[in-house]
Design a protein that fits this description.
elongated; 0% strand; 2 helices; mainly alpha; 69% helix
Amino acid sequence: MDRDPRAKELYNLKLALATFALQLDAFEARLKSAAQNNGPFHSAPPDIRLANKLVSASVALGGVALR
């Protein structure tokens, strides 16, 4: 990755947006499932494995590990 701080910030913003999009998809899927079952909605704990895979993939592609 380039050493330009703006490029790093842009990369971090893109990663945050991608992570948010995945979390939103999972949330919507749980809502849809609860609506189909006519049951109450129970929030599932976050899938830390998915987050770890995203960070590993981004670092493998030359990204910066988030701290």
